[in-house]
Amino acid sequence: MICLAGYSLHKTYQDKGQDIRVLINANLEVQRGEMVCITGKSGCGKSTLLHILGLLDDPDSGRVIINSAELSSRHVNAHKIRNRDIGFVFQFHYLLEDLCARENVALPMLIAGENKAKAFKEADSLLELLNLQERGNHYPNQLSGGEQQRVALARALINRPSIVLADEPTGNLDPHHSAEVWELMFRLNRDLEQTFVIVTHDRELARQSPKTYELKDGMLY
Ligand SMILES: Nc1ncnc2c1ncn2[C@@H]1O[C@H](COP(=O)(O)OP(=O)(O)OP(=O)(O)O)[C@@H](O)[C@H]1O
Ligand SMILES: [Mg+2]
Questions:
Q1: Please, are residues 9 and 23 in contact by the beta-carbon 8 Å criterion?
Q2: What pLDDT does 206 receive?
Q3: Residues of the chain with pLDDT > 90: what percent?
Q4: Number of folded domains that form the chain
Q5: Does residue 45 have its Cβ closer than 6 Å to ligand 1?
Q6: Range of the structural domain that residue 96 is part of
Q7: Is a pLDDT exceeding 90 seen at residue 9?
Q8: More confident: 52 or 210
Q9: Is residue 51 one of the residues assigned to a domain?
Q10: Span 157-178, mean pLDDT?
């Protein structure tokens, strides 16, 4: 079953009177439980594509389908879908510095309207799953880069989204911490059948993923 698709996606930016054509008929389909990697040169439009698929931005034309519904960032329920159905992990973790790890992880569930007890119980069990149980009360500046990124992953997972979109989740990490985060994503995909779409520069890792697209000249191959 297809849980995420983009069809005939076009996106052009205007910059100083010039058109920058970023997506030119980009198409992709992601099945439930799949792990899909997207590679491509810097500036080719990977983040643009992920933002469009995650309803953070809209294409100039084309369709985005999430769990059988055609959607855009302007859809009345877009904020709910972003909160509940889509988990985001970015290159920089964007954890809130004033909140400890477990508060950061619990936040999307609290925003979704769940009570505190349930949100913190869930946050604790995810932190345990990601081997961070000892770090729950640490603030982001007290965590290593790999730990911060695992906390960001836990936050992306807390509402059990149907899809996790990750934009170079290990781009900012050294090889050791990078491997740690990749192993985790592979494990979540294998054991929990979590669907992932991951943008990465790391072709070697992308090769380990069962399905990889290359974004080139505005199209996905
Ligand atoms: N808001 C914007 N206005 C104008 N141009 C933009 C805008 N956002 C992105 N671009 C341009 O569109 C192109 C694609 O950008 P994008 O961030 O999607 O690339 P990317 O593949 O994610 O690159 P990287 O691997 O470096 O993160 C780039 O040339 C970028 O400069
Ligand atoms: Mg990018």
A1: yes
A2: 86
A3: 86
A4: 1
A5: yes
A6: 32-59+69-220
A7: yes
A8: 52
A9: yes
A10: 91
Q: Is residue 215 part of a domain?
A: yes
For ligand 1, atom 18, name the residue with the nearest CA: 45
Distance in Å, CA 43 to ligand 2 centroid = 7
pLDDT classification of 149: cutoffs 50, 70, 90: very high
Amino acid letter, 85? D
In 3D space, the residue among 104, 54, 63 whose CA is nearest the CA of residue 84 turns out to be 54
In a domain, 205, yes or no: yes
What's the pTM?
0.94
Q: In this model, does residue 171 exceed pLDDT 90?
A: no
Phi, psi of 187 (to 5 degrees): -65, -45
- Please state, in angstroms and as integers, the Cα–Cα distance from residue 22 to each residue in 9, 15, 43, 47, 171, following that order: 10, 12, 9, 10, 21
How would you class 173 by CB atoms within 10 Å of its CB: exposed for 0-12, middle for 13-18, buried for 19 or more?
Answer: buried
Q: Tell me, what CATH number does 92's domain have?
A: 3.40.50.300
Which value, to the nearest 10 degrees, does the dihedral of the CA atoms of residues 51, 31, 89, 103 take?
120
Cα–Cα distance, 205 to 68 (Å, whole number): 30
- Mean of pLDDT over the chain: 94
pLDDT at 24: 98
Please check whether residue 16 lies inside any domain of the structure: no
Cβ(41) – ligand 1 distance below 6 Å: no
Decide: 22 in ligand 1 pocket, CB within 6 A: yes
**Ligand 1: does its nearest atom lie under 6 Å from the Cβ of 46?**
yes
CA 115 to ligand 1 centroid distance, Å: 39
